């Protein structure tokens, strides 16, 4: 028996003792899908500078080529989110066809209402009706693009806000936000969803029109069942209990998806799980708990969550950074699948605080390496996707693109 086979046999024995069935765990791991963002393959930067890397895609087509590498090596990233107009092309069916030829598809469509000079004082909540009209038309254009390429989800983030007390009429802007979102909602096909993001600050520093999950939740409730909340893990104040928000939204059947990234201070957009893997694990704990809820609506909500990465930093190589994010998501999901939920519930009923906390943490402390190696073998992907990428010649091949690719 090889070292890996022996490690897996021991792992299996240990998990059996803990009451965990590995066939079920593996089936769930095989079903996990993580969408990567087109903008994570482009050049990015800080508030101060965009750094140009050699080999970065020059257009949306090349971004899909890089994203397809991530899918080929992990087997769990079959779709790619697009951002319009960053990924503007003349013919979206051509992009869709290109994606299909590469073995991936177009995922969530993200309207971009923070790029143009006209939006300096806001887009859908601008006090100028002509600018609000332009912004709403862009939302409608994105609904059309989503219909053309067969995307179910539109992810919405608005930079709209203000920097100074008195600068704007906050309540009027709330009404304008709802007005634009309502127009967009009416344009959706029945299978489509609007996933409404929020962020507590940046680029606006005094107030942001959709500053927290409650404001997004309120909008989604007013709009109807096809509108849900998108939790970007980097969009909260320090110390916020993100998994609590997740549990709350799941229970309300209003959690539509995630933008995963890691943060230390603000909206850092760093590699997922780099600073806070336990938070990611605890988010999955809440999702898996809801997936077994007595309420079919809650179960369905947990089932339909869109797992998306929103990670894009300036100092790492793009494709390896994306691989690291995806692998970190997979690792934390694998660990959460090792929670013995009966044990947790039993301890909760007995109000045994230490036993409950131990039952959750124990799963986190398992080394899932043997499990992931066996899984990847069954899935026909490299045992170590990062190593396989670094040993391949894809990274050197793309250098022929030169510097000066697409940013964000
Ligand atoms: C905003 O900070 C955000 O999280 C939104 O999802 C954007 O669409 C994305 O980043 C890219 O800038
Ligand atoms: Mn985001
Ligand atoms: Mn963000």
CATH architecture of the domain at 3-112 and 233-401: Alpha-Beta Barrel
User: What is the CATH C-level name of the domain at 3-112 and 233-401?
Assistant: Alpha Beta
Alpha carbon gyration radius: 22 Å
Average per-residue pLDDT, rounded, comes to 97
Instruction: Describe the strand arrangement of the main beta sheet, using strand numbers.
Output: 6-8-10-11-12
What is the CATH topology assignment of the domain at 3-112 and 233-401? TIM Barrel
SSE-based structural type: alpha/beta
Beta-strand percent range: 5-15%
Ligands and ions found: alpha-D-psicofuranose, manganese (II) ion
> Main sheet, how many strands, which sense, barrel?
5 strands, parallel
CATH superfamily of the domain at 3-112 and 233-401: Divalent-metal-dependent TIM barrel enzymes
- Spell out the helices and strands N to C: HHEEEHEHEHEEHEEHEHEHHEHHHHHH
Secondary structure tally: strands: 12
Q: What percentage of residues falls in helices of 4 or more residues?
A: 40-55%
Instruction: Report the span from N to C terminus.
Output: 47 Å
If helices are DSSP runs of H or I spanning 4 or more residues, what is the number of helices?
16
Low-confidence stretches: none
What best-fitting shape do the alpha-carbon axes yield? globular
InterPro entries: L-rhamnose_isomerase, Rhamnose_iso-rel, Xyl_isomerase-like_TIM-brl
Organism: Paenibacillus solanacearum
Pfam families: AP_endonuc_2
Keywords: Isomerase, Manganese, Metal-binding
